[in-house]
Amino acid sequence: MASPKKKLQGLVAATITPMTENGFSLLLNLVPLSDSLFGTVNGTTGEGLSLSVSERRQVAEEWVTQGRNKLDQVVIHVGALSLKESQELAQHAAEIGADGIAVIAPFFLKPWNKDVLINFLKEVAASAPALPFYYYHIPALTGVKIRAEELLDGIQDKIPTFQGLKFSDTDLLDFGQCVDQNHQRQFSLLFGVDEQLLSGLVMGATGAVGR
Ligand SMILES: CC(=O)N[C@@H]([C@@H](O)[C@H](O)[C@H](O)CO)[C@@H](O)CC(=O)C(=O)O
């Protein structure tokens, strides 16, 4: 099982991808990086799904390189519609020394039940077997409504590197049931809706991803 250097908790910055009129730019040195911060790269805020695979690789490399000795952990979002692309990005994240990977559910031809979703995630996780794996639950954007609580049930038997969840949904009942299930606090439960952060923390979120 992958063992993270440090648990992903507290405040995690959803990183931006600097853009110019001509596309994305690699001027990350213009982005202030504070010490002791965690970052998730190529997620919603970083517009990862609007970039090509090659652009995503470059952005990930840049954040990992520039974040070295500045950011506590850099987690790369590697979700994609194509399993192969997702696997390629997961392998790449491992090669460049990222600290973890996160994956959304495929959102065009959607998984129709928990098992189908887990099979997809499992294949991606297996491409980076030494990296902690996080599921990025964001049903409003993916349209995949499989409850996070349902997914968590027994997930480490299927995905040994599973380390937690980024919960970007307003369904606090579902979130509460995730917390209940995580009574040994083995997983990071990161809350992703800034406007409800207080409620998420009161309910037992171990951290938050926001901007
Ligand atoms: C959908 C979205 O953009 N969610 C934001 C929130 O910070 C969001 O902007 C905020 O709650 C405002 O609605 C983050 O959770 C995004 C995020 O985690 C990411 O980019 O990886």
UniProtKB/TrEMBL annotation:
<protein>
    <recommendedName>
        <fullName>N-acetylneuraminate lyase</fullName>
        <ecNumber>4.1.3.3</ecNumber>
    </recommendedName>
</protein>
<dbReference type="GO" id="GO:0008747">
    <property type="term" value="F:N-acetylneuraminate lyase activity"/>
</dbReference>
<keyword id="KW-0119">Carbohydrate metabolism</keyword>
<comment type="subunit">
    <text>Homotetramer.</text>
</comment>
<comment type="similarity">
    <text>Belongs to the DapA family. NanA subfamily.</text>
</comment>
<dbReference type="InterPro" id="IPR013785">
    <property type="entry name" value="Aldolase_TIM"/>
</dbReference>
<dbReference type="GO" id="GO:0005737">
    <property type="term" value="C:cytoplasm"/>
</dbReference>
<keyword id="KW-0456">Lyase</keyword>
<dbReference type="GO" id="GO:0019262">
    <property type="term" value="P:N-acetylneuraminate catabolic process"/>
</dbReference>
<dbReference type="InterPro" id="IPR002220">
    <property type="entry name" value="DapA-like"/>
</dbReference>
<dbReference type="Pfam" id="PF00701">
    <property type="entry name" value="DHDPS"/>
</dbReference>
<comment type="pathway">
    <text>Amino-sugar metabolism; N-acetylneuraminate degradation.</text>
</comment>
<dbReference type="GO" id="GO:0042802">
    <property type="term" value="F:identical protein binding"/>
</dbReference>
<keyword id="KW-0704">Schiff base</keyword>
<keyword id="KW-0963">Cytoplasm</keyword>
